[in-house]
Structures are given as C-alpha cells and as structure tokens.
Design a protein that fits this description.
With about 400 residues, this protein is α/β, with parallel strands linked by helices. It folds into two domains: about 170 residues, Carbamate kinase (3-Layer(aba) Sandwich); about 170 residues, VC0802-like, CATH 3.30.2130. About 35% of the residues lie in helices and about 25% in strands. It contains twelve helices and 18 strands. The strands form three sheets. It has an eight-stranded mixed β-sheet, sandwiched between helices. Strands 14-15-13-16-18-17 form a six-stranded antiparallel β-sheet. A four-stranded mixed β-sheet has the order 5-4-7-8. Helix 2 runs antiparallel to helix 3, helix 5 packs parallel to helix 7 and helix 6 runs antiparallel to helix 7. The model has no long low-confidence stretch (mean pLDDT about 95). The structure holds aspartic acid (ASP) and magnesium ion (MG). Magnesium ion binds next to loops.
Length: about 400
C-alpha cells in the first residue's frame, strides 16, 4: 500500500465519458490498496474559453476577478469526478485549492505556493477517502483565491506529493511519456524509460509542453519521483528522478527544438562595461524574453550584440530598441527571421567534451550552417534556418543513436 498523488490533465477529463474512464482507473488503483490524492485540471479547453469570455468584456481584466473566474474550471472537474467515484461505491471527497490548504503569495495569475497545510487531506486519507483536489489554485496570505499560472496543475500535484511525502507523483496526460524528441516530427523518436530532473527541465523548457517546468523544479527540490504516462493507453510511462543511469553510452538523451526564432543584432554599440546591462534592462522593462545572446567586438570602440527572441515578440523588440536609441547609442538594428533552435540534452555531457564538436560535425555534413551557439553543462543549442530544422533533428537523432533501446538503463 502506497501513498500516491495522481494528476489528470484537461484532455484526460475533457468529457463526462473520459471522467468515467478516469474514475475507473482511480477505483482500480484504490482497490489495490493505495492511498490516493488526485489533482485535476479543468475539462478540455475550458480555461481557454473562460479567458476568452473575460477578454470579450474587457481588454484588461481585473486580476483578482480573473483568478475567481479561472478557478471555476477545476471546481467543475473535482465535483464531477468525485460523483463518479461515489457512484462506483468509492468514498471520495473534493477540495478546492483553499480547502486543500494550498497557501500562496498574493501574485494573482502567477502565484507561488508558500506552504501546504495538509491537515484536511490527512484526515480524509485517514478515513480511507480518495481526495480529489482542484489543480492550479490556492489561497493567498490575505485570503484571496489565486492561480499558479497556465499549466499550473502539474505544480499542484508535485507540491502535494512533496508535502504529503507521497511515494511518487503520477502525471497522466495525452502522451505516453517523454520521448527522445518530438514523435510528431521524427518517426524514430523513442519513449524514454527514465530521465533526470535536469534533463527534463531542459526538455520541458524546450519541448512540447509535456510538463510544466516549475513542477519539475519542485520535484527536483523535494526529490519527488515523477511518472509521466497516458491516461488512455495502458503503457509504461517515463520516470523522472535524480539519478537515472550509469550507462556510458547515454551522453545525449534527447533533442529539443522550436521554430519561430528570430535573431536580432544591435550593431555599433559603444564598447563599454555597462552596454550589455543597459541593453538588456531596456528589453526587460518591456517584458521581452531573450534567449541566446552573443557579443562580438567589431573594433576597439564598438560591439555588436545579437540575441534571439520569438517571432511574435519581434515587433515589440524593435520598437523598444528604437525608443531607446539615444540612450543606447547604437548604429542600427538588423534581424533575421525564419530560424529555429535545435538543442541536444544530456547529463553525461559534463564529462564528455567531444559532444558539441560531434553535433557541429553532424550539422556540417548536412550542409547546415550554424548561426548561433549556446551551451550549458547539460545542453548544446544551435540556431539554424527553420528549413533545416527537421533534417537537423533527424540527423542528430541518428548520430547520437537515440532510437536504440539501451539495454542496461537503470530504472
Ligand atoms: N486549467 C489550467 C490551464 O489550462 C491549469 C492546468 O491545466 O494545468 O492552464
Ligand atoms: Mg498541462
């Protein structure tokens, strides 16, 4: 008998039929003797629908009221799922975020969990009830209802697993696990048995949104083993935990990629100590998220600073820079759209210096020119033309032998 937190995402509870299916799964796990706390998202796209309704009324919805509105989505699911379980003769009870003791800061729309008072949940578990908790919501120190940011139900689940010292947190979603790369683009993509928190963090930031990055950070900090699996297909998922493998061959574990990348170059900036700081504080004042940054000295007096932004923020980026031309004192701005970022990820890279070289080699062999590079201990990212993206990912997937099952992967 184990204490387990399970989370079911919006697609998994998207219709009443699917809620019945989820109830059957929960009933089965409960009958096996597990203590269960279940976190659910709003049904299907209902959060989007609520956002659209608010936007139809006002351009700038009041943040407190927005949270009041959005938290209703999850409240619908917890009630329906609990009814379905009661119908199956399983004692269950639903709790909203505040009832479940999820205490947050006061930042409406993007609140952070500060503490969890588990008294109510513990009492319910003690009475052998299945506890159904609304994801993505909490209560602030000043008693206001808050939300944790889009996709935040994952974080609710992991935080509860940590607070309740659950054996693991199972995230049920519409994919069967975490793959070596996006299987919609690369046929050879393989589901991973396991991946480390750090690798998953890189993949989560870069990948298809399987898991909310903040949830992975939480799991890492509190050492909560996470399992990602499908709620619809009975198939072993992927486990995310601290130490995954001692296998030497596993230097690269996955390839993440994204398109709609634009490179912006600010040319002829003064070559001074605080140039970088001034440039990026200008951008951050305009809430522009910058990714890869490269600085080149053109001569002793001038530097060019290039960085990438998503295509959708290009207009805002240019206008922010133009407004600050006097202050920043640059010559001109150049930009190149239609780019992609392709990254190889793997914890083993720290001790394998040849990995980046091998990546550049593979791309050179495909006649793909690399426009920018950035590295971390467990990742090498390259910026290339969007037209080359899938070819690059396929070639790298093959070169790093990611399609091959690794026999002695430690589970
Ligand atoms: N329902 C919320 C959203 O759609 C939270 C979640 O599903 O994680 O963002
Ligand atoms: Mg999600």
């Amino acid at each position: 008998m184990a204490r387990i937190v399970q989370k079911y995402g919006g697609t998994s509870v998207g219709t009443v039929e699917r809620i019945k299916h989820v109830a059957n799964r929960i009933a089965e796990s409960f009958t096996q003797g597990n203590d269960l706390v279940i976190v659910v998202s709003a049904m299907g796209k209902s959060t989007d629908t609520l956002v659209e309704m608010a936007q139809a009324l006002t351009e700038n919805p009041n943040k407190r009221e927005m949270d009041m509105l959005l938290t209703t989505g999850e409240q619908v699911t917890i009630a329906l799922l609990t009814m379905a379980l009661l119908e199956r003769g399983i004692d269950a009870i639903s709790y909203t975020g505040w009832q479940a003791g999820i205490e947050t800061d006061t930042q409406h729309g993007n609140a952070q969990i500060q503490d969890i008072n588990t008294t109510k949940i513990e009492a319910a578990l003690h009475q052998n009830q299945v506890v159904i908790v609304a994801g993505f919501q909490g209560i602030s120190q000043d008693s206001q209802i808050t939300t944790l940011g889009r996709g935040g139900s994952d974080t609710t689940a992991v935080a509860l697993a940590a607070a309740l010292q659950a054996k693991r947190c199972e995230i049920y979603t519409d994919v069967t696990g975490v793959f070596t790369t996006d299987p919609r683009f690369v046929k050879a993509a393989r589901k991973l048995h396991s991946i480390s928190y750090d690798e998953m963090l890189e993949m989560a930031h870069l990948g298809a949104g399987v898991l909310h990055p903040r949830a992975v950070e939480f799991a890492k900090n509190y050492d909560v083993p996470l399992v990602v699996a499908s709620s619809m297909v009975e198939e072993e998922g992927t486990i995310i935990e601290e130490v995954v493998s001692v296998e030497k061959g596993l230097v690269v574990r996955g390839i993440a990629f994204e398109n709609d990348v634009t490179k912006v170059s600010v040319v002829g900036l003064p070559n001074e100590m605080n140039t970088l700081a001034r440039l990026f504080s200008t951008l951050s004042r305009h809430f522009i998220n910058v990714d890869i940054i490269v600085q080149n000295e053109t001569d002793s007096e001038h530097v060019t600073i290039s960085f990438t932004v998503t295509q959708s923020t290009l207009t805002d980026t240019i206008s922010a820079l133009e407004k600050a031309q006097m202050e920043l004192n640059y010559e001109n701005i150049e930009y190149e759209s239609g780019l992609a970022k392709v990254s190889i990820v793997g914890s083993g890279m720290v001790s394998n210096p040849g990995v980046a070289a091998q990546m550049f080699d593979v791309l050179a062999n495909e006649a793909i020119s690399i426009k920018m590079v950035s590295t971390s201990e467990i990742k090498v990212s390259t910026v290339i033309s969007e037209d080359d993206m899938v070819i690059a990912v396929e070639a790298l997937h093959e070169a790093f032998q990611l399609a091959e099952e690794v026999a002695h992967e430690v589970l």
